[in-house]
């Protein structure tokens, strides 16, 4: 049946179409307005702000260098595990302590660097001096930690082996970071919403990290208290405060690199950060099951560990949202690929595997086994490490031709090798749990039967080195050439 | 309507306050460790034992859990172990302690062994 539209009919049809077009024009106008303005071009930043960016890039360079070193020296530990009878120059306990302290410290330096290099605030010369002093302190403090550990001077439990003066040094580094970021928030409240929101979330995470470190400076009290406080750093940094910092820094990095409108990012940043924090705070109970705590804590730990999957789901959804229409650009950008890798390991290694391990009936058997080590590799490096490297890769970008293909290949190798290392340790943990806790075999016998898992893990570690060292080189070498030219990116 | 930063602060600080309240309340209720056991814990941490061994499942995984080492191996076995530690590699013996450090470490093992930790580690089938 033919429908004939008279003049009035055509007018009535055109009106809603015109209204929709007008709404779309208004939205485009809002998007191009001040609030969503892309970052000020470098030439519009004050000289002091550019110097702060330079300091941030040096922090990132320090982080990437330490990552490169770690990817080499960690092989000594995996070699020792596979072939324990072969003598090595460094004792196993010293090597492991250095490895763990590298794992804690370089992501912090990387996130400091990335957050400084994203600053838009016109800073004062004083802030720049403080930031450079902080960088000097970071180098000296970390060198002190390594020297103490090499001399066999331990000052605490796992991840907290640094003697107390160096923990105070780390606390000072965190507090300086908080101070600079708080100033950025104060400025951003009046001038730039993106800066204000990013700085707020980063400052909240950093201040909390500092507070959580305080009870761990000197391990005193009953063993349950010492271990309980230790997990404030081991868990609440990784799954709470540092998660806030990483979320905000990575969000701001993606906004810059992929040109994602900030008004898309901000609501999800708030949701993700709040969910990470709410679930992570009581999710710490999954580390407290076998301390002599109340049995109800097992239910709390299991439930909140399940809830921890929610923010991980949000993160995965966000990465799809921001990549929409930008997939080709994203695939050729190392920073974005590293962030995507971080999301992947968040879902697989931290979220899914972590939740399975937190189920009390399973945890009872796998607690204290190599499965924890596998999970730690995937969560600590896979999530925090990859995310930090992504933010650093964006911060260290230069206009010079870079080694893009090498970087992309290195990232692929890193992911593959992390999977090999992580899952071989998970396999070792499952076998160990069965042989030790079900079959009742002696520990020495169990270890000798796990040799093939440790061999695979060692091979994974060598592969990791073939990805880690080139990635570090490909990030640092162009940047070094650039600053030698006398320019700052 | 509350601003987003304020809402966020409220969302994170309330659970944090509850959590820290519970944590400090729980820690405050713990029985103090005997001084010798506390000294033993310091030896345990200072010598880096937790890099290879676990206590209550926390530490390194190369050397096995020592939570119930006193009840499973016995004091005499442990003393003999530290008196003549076995080789780890061709050139290195297992680290050892002696004298007052050893006495304190034994006290630490004794303390940890009797902690009520919900029957962890689980015993293999057929063993009591």
What percentage of the residues of chain B does DSSP assign to strands (E)?
Answer: 5-15%
What's the SSE pattern of chain A? HHHHHHHHHHHHHHHHHH
Shape of chain B: elongated
Structural class of chain B: mainly alpha
Strand content of chain A: under 5%
If you compute it from the alpha carbons, what radius of gyration of chain A comes out, rounded to the nearest whole angstrom?
A: 25 Å
Name the strands of the widest sheet of chain B in spatial order: 2-1-3
For the sheet with most strands of chain B, the description reads:
3 strands, mixed
> Which residues of chain B sit in consecutive blocks of at least 5 with pLDDT less than 50?
none
Q: Helical region count of chain B?
A: 5
Question: How many distinct beta strands of chain A?
Answer: 0
Question: Helix and strand string of chain B, N-terminal first?
Answer: HHEEEHHEEH
Structural class of chain A: mainly alpha
The assembly state of the depicted protein chains is: heterodimer
- Please tell me the overall pLDDT of chain A: 89
**Percent of residues of chain A in helical segments?**
over 70%
Radius of gyration of chain B: 20 Å
Largest sheet of chain A, described in full?
none
First-last Cα distance of chain B: 61 Å
């Amino acid at each position: 049946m033919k429908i004939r539209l008279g003049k009035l009919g055509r007018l009535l049809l055109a009106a809603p179409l015109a209204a929709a077009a007008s709404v779309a024009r208004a939205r485009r106008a809002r998007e191009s307005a001040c609030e969503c303005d892309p970052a000020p071009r470098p030439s519009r930043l004050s000289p002091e702000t550019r110097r702060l960016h330079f300091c941030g890039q040096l922090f990132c360079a320090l982080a990437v260098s330490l990552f490169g070193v770690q990817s080499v020296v960690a092989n000594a530990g995996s070699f020792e595990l596979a072939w324990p009878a072969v003598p090595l120059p460094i004792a196993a306990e010293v090597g492991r302590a250095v490895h763990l302290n590298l794992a804690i410290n370089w992501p912090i330096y990387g996130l400091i660097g990335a957050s400084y290099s994203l600053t838009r605030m016109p800073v004062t010369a004083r802030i720049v001096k403080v930031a450079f002093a902080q960088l000097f302190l970071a180098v000296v403090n970390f060198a002190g930690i390594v020297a103490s550990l090499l001399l066999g001077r331990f000052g605490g439990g796992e991840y907290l082996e640094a003697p107390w003066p160096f923990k105070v040094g780390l606390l000072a580094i965190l507090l300086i970071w908080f101070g600079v970021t708080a100033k950025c928030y104060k400025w951003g409240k009046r001038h730039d919403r993106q800066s204000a929101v990013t700085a707020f979330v980063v400052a909240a995470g950093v201040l909390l990290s500092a507070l959580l470190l305080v009870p761990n400076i000197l391990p005193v009290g009953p063993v349950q208290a010492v271990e309980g406080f230790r997990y404030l750093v081991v868990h609440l940094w990784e799954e709470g405060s540092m998660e806030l910092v990483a979320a905000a820094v990575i969000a701001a990095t993606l906004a810059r690199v992929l040109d994602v409108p900030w008004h898309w990012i901000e609501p999800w940043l708030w949701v993700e950060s709040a969910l990470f924090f709410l679930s992570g705070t009581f999710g710490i109970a999954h580390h407290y099951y076998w301390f002599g705590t109340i049995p109800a804590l097992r239910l709390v730990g299991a439930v909140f560990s399940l809830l921890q999957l929610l923010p991980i789901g949000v993160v995965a959804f966000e990465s799809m949202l921001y990549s929409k229409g930008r997939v080709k650009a994203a695939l050729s950008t190392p920073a974005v690929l590293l962030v995507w890798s971080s999301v992947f390991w968040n879902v697989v290694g931290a979220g899914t595997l972590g939740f399975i391990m937190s189920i009390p009936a399973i945890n009872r058997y796998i607690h204290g086994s190599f499965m924890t080590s596998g999970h730690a590799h995937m969560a600590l490096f896979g999530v925090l490490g990859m995310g930090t490297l992504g933010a650093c890769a964006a911060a260290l970008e230069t206009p010079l031709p870079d080694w893009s293909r090498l970087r992309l290949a290195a990232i692929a190798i890193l992911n593959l090798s992390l999977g090999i290392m992580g899952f071989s340790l998970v396999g070792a943990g499952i076998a160990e749990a069965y042989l030790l806790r079900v079959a009742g075999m002696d520990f020495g016998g169990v270890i000798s039967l796990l040799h093939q898992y440790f061999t695979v893990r060692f091979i994974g570690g060598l592969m990791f080195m073939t990805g880690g060292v080139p990635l570090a080189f490909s990030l640092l070498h162009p940047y070094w050439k650039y600053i030698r030219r006398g320019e700052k990116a | 309507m509350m601003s987003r930063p304020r809402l966020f602060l409220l969302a994170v600080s309330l659970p944090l306050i509850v959590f820290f309240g519970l944590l400090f309340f729980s820690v405050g209720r713990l029985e103090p460790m005997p001084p010798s056991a506390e000294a033993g814990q310091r030896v345990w941490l200072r010598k880096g034992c937790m890099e290879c061994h676990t206590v209550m499942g926390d530490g390194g995984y190369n050397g096995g859990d020592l939570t119930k080492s006193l009840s499973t191996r016995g004091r005499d076995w442990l003393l003999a172990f530290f008196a003549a530690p076995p080789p780890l590699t061709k050139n290195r013996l297992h680290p050892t302690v002696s004298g007052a450090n050893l006495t304190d470490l034994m006290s630490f093992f004794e303390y940890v062994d009797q902690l009520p930790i919900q029957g962890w580690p689980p015993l293999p089938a057929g063993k009591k």
